[in-house]
C-alpha cells in the first residue's frame, strides 16, 4: 500500500478499515516497491537531481556533528525517529555544509 511506510513507527496505525469490501467488490490489491522500477533509476536520478537544483523539491536532513564518536548515538536516534529526513553523521569537517551536501 502506497504510503504504508509512514506507519512503521506510529503507535496508532492508520489505514484501510474496509478489508471485507475487497472480496465483495472484487478489488485487486497489489504491493510494489522501488525495486520493481530498477530500469527507471537512471532517468529518475537525472530528473530528481534537476528538480533539486531548480528548487522544485527540497531534501530534509539531520546532520550530526562530532565524528564517529557520535555515530552510535546517531544510530539509536535513527531508530527512535529523532531525525527529519536523511540522518548524516559528519565524520570530518569538509568546509561549508553546502559542499558536504553536494558530495552526497
What descriptive keywords fit this protein?
single chain; alpha+beta; two-stranded parallel sheet; 4 helices; oxidoreductase activity, acting on the CH-CH group of donors, NAD or NADP as acceptor; NADP-dependent alkenal double bond P2; MDR_fam
Residues in helices, as a percent range: 25-40%
Our Rg estimate from Cα atoms comes to 19 Å
Question: Pairing-aware structural class of the strands and helices?
Answer: alpha+beta
**Low-confidence regions:** none
N→C terminal distance: 29 Å
Mean pLDDT: 83
Order of helices and strands: HHEHEH
Number of strands: 2
- The main sheet orders its strands as 1-2
* SS field, number of helical segments: 4
Shape: flat
**Major beta sheet, specifics?**
2 strands, parallel
Instruction: Kindly estimate the percentage of residues that lie in beta strands according to DSSP.
Output: 5-15%
Task: Work out the count of structural domains.
Answer: 1
GO molecular function: oxidoreductase activity, acting on the CH-CH group of donors, NAD or NADP as acceptor
Protein name: NADP-dependent alkenal double bond P2
Organism: Cyphellophora attinorum
InterPro entries: MDR_fam (IPR045010)
